[in-house]
Write a structure and sequence with these properties.
The structure holds 2 protein chains of 2 kinds. By secondary structure, chain A is of the alpha/beta class. Chain A is built from 18 helices and 14 strands. In chain A, strand 12, helix 14 and strand 13 form a beta-alpha-beta unit. Chain B is mainly beta. Chain B has a single domain, classed as Alpha-Beta Plaits (2-Layer Sandwich). In chain B, strand 6 and strand 7 form a beta hairpin. The longest helix of chain B has 5 residues. The complex binds thiamine diphosphate (TPP) and iron/sulfur cluster (2 copies).
Chain lengths: ~475, ~110
Amino acid sequence: MSKEILKKSEVFYEVYERKPGADKLTTTYCPGCGHGIIHKMIAEALEDFGVQDRTIFISPVGCSVFAYYYFHTGNVQVAHGRAPAVATGLKRANPDSIVISYQGDGDLAAIGGLEILHAANRGEGFTVIFVNNAIYGMTGGQMAPTTLIGQTTMTTPRGRDPVNDGYPIRMSEIIATLEAPVYVERVMLSDSKEIMKARAAIRKALKVQIEKNGFAFVEILSPCPSGWKMTPSQAKRWVADVLSKYFPVGVKKDISAEFEGRKKEVKKVSKEEIAKILGIVEAEEVDKRVNKYVDKDVSEEIKVAGFGGQGVLSLGITLAYMGMKHGYKVSWLPSYGPEMRGGTANCHVKISKGSIGSPVVSYPTLLIAMNRPSLDRFENDVVSGGIIVYDNSLIDREPVRSDVTVIPIPATKIADEIGSTKIANMVVVGAIVKYLDLMSVEYIIDSIDQVIKSKKLADMNREAIRKGVEYMTTNYKLG
Amino acid sequence: MGDKKTKGHVVVNIEECKGCGLCVEACPVNVLYQSEKFNTRGYHYAQYKGDGCTGCGICFYSCPEPGAITVFKRWDKITEKRFCKNCDGERFVFTLEDKPGKYFCTACLKEV
Ligand SMILES: Cc1ncc(C[n+]2csc(CCOP(=O)(O)OP(=O)(O)O)c2C)c(N)n1
Ligand code: SF4
Ligand code: SF4
C-alpha cells in the first residue's frame, strides 16, 4: 500500500462500453456485494504486477458473468462450471498468459465440482478465485453446496437439512488434500483487516502463477446482501459471525517456497503428424487444376439441410475439405437433432478467400435444401441475391422468394438411377461446384476418396459428381 | 477544498456510489457519512466531511464499486492548483508517474 493515490485501476475499462443501457460507469452488482471488492483487488494486483496485457480473465455463469464488461484484459465467458477446463486449454496453449478462473460456489462446487478437482489435481498453472457466498446469487437465491445447515434459501425454505440436502462442502480443505496445488487459502470479506488479508492472498496466488506457473486457489467468503436478504452491513457481519465458523479462514496448504515451478511446455504436433493421425493423404505437390483458383475472390456462406441420413453433413464436409485443398479458408459446423437418422440435420459451411471470424451461418448466400422441411425452415434466411438449390425430386413446392436465384436439381432421382439414393449429396456437390465455378471438378472427382472413405461408394460418388456437373451443363449452358 | 493540515483526502464519485454504506462503517475516524440526498439512481451516496481523513485507504478497499472512491493518501503533498475546465474553476491537481506531463483535477479526477 505504498501508492499515494488509490483510484480506479487501469485494468478496468474507463467506460463499460459493453454494458447495455445508459449507465456505463457502474457494475451490475448489488450494493454491498463482495464481487466488486474482489474485482478491485484483482485489478489492482494485475496492474501492480504489470501483467494486464497477458491476462485472460474467465467469467463464469453467475452474477459475475459480465466481468468482461469491466476487465480490460483478455476475456472468455464460459459455460457453467467449465472455467477450469477452459483455463487449462488457455494456459497450455499460451503458457505465458496469466489465466484467472473466477468462479462462484454454485459454479465451482456444484455443476463444476469435478472440473475443479481435476484441474487442481493436475496442478494446472492458473489461479482460481473462488467466491463463496453460500448461495446462488444470480438465479435469485437458491441453495448452493456451500449453503449452511439451517440456512433458508429459495429452495430450502425450512432451512438446509442435511438429511435431504447433505452438508456444506469445504472446497478449500478438499483441494488442499491434493498433491499438486501449490497454495490454497480461505479468506473473508468481513472487516477491513480481513479484507486486507484477502488482498494479500489474491496477490500471493497470482504471484504463484506469475513466478512459478503453479496452481493456486483462493476461496473468499463474500457477502451477498440480496441473496441473504440482509443489509450490506449485516451481510459483512454474518460472514464473520456465522459463515466463517463453518468455513474457517486461513492457509490450507502452502508449498510455494519449496515448489520449483511447473514446466511450461507447449506440446507441438507437426503438420505431418496431424495429417497422419487424421489419415489425410497429403498431395505431393499442388495440383495445377487447383492453382487456377488461387486468386478467385470467394465468400460463400452455405447452409446444407435435410434429413439425417441424406448425407447433408458429408456434403458440407466435402465442400469445406475441397475448398481447403483449393487454398480457401473454410469452416464446417454440424448441427443435428438427437435423432441422428430420421431427424433433421444441417451444417454450416464457409468458404472464403479472407479469414473466417465465426463458423456460424445465419444468413446463407447459398441454401442447399434436400427436403421440404429444410426449405420451409431456411428459405427466408437466404440473403437477397443469394442462391437456393433444392432437390425437386423430393420437394413438392417451389421456393417463393423472387429476389434469389433458384436452382432445382432432381438429385435423389439422378442418384437413384446411378444405383443409390445415398449419393444424392454428391450430385449436388458436382452441380454447385460447376455452377459457381468454385473449384476444379476434375480435382474433386480424383480426390473424393480422401473425404468419403467408403471404398464401396467411391466409384458411385465419382459418377454422381459427374452427373451433377452434366445436369448443370445441359440445363444452364455453362462452359 | 480540503484542509491541507489533514494528511489524507477522499473523493466520492457521487454517480458511481450505490449507497451501500460500507465505507462509512469502515472508516476508523468517522469522516464519511451518507448524504440525505439521492444521486440520479436513487442512492444515498457517501460524502466526506471535508477534513480529518488520515489517508489510510480502508474505505477504498471496502467499497465494491471500482470508481466510486478515490483516496489521496498524501493530501498534504498536493499543493499545486490549476484551472479545471470540467469544474470550471481553480482546483488542486495531481500527477501520475505513468502519465508524465499531465495534470488531473482532484475534484473530478479528469485531466485539466
Ligand atoms: C448449465 C447451466 N445450468 C444452470 C444454469 C442456471 N444458473 C445460472 S447462475 C447459477 C448459479 C450461480 O451461482 P454461483 O456460482 O454461486 O454464483 P453467484 O451468482 O452467487 O455469484 C445457475 C444455477 C445455467 N446458466 N447453466
Ligand atoms: S445477488 Fe448477491 S452475488 Fe449477485 S450481485 Fe447481488 S449481492 Fe452480488
Ligand atoms: S481513507 Fe481512511 S480515514 Fe480517510 S475516509 Fe477513507 S477510511 Fe476514512
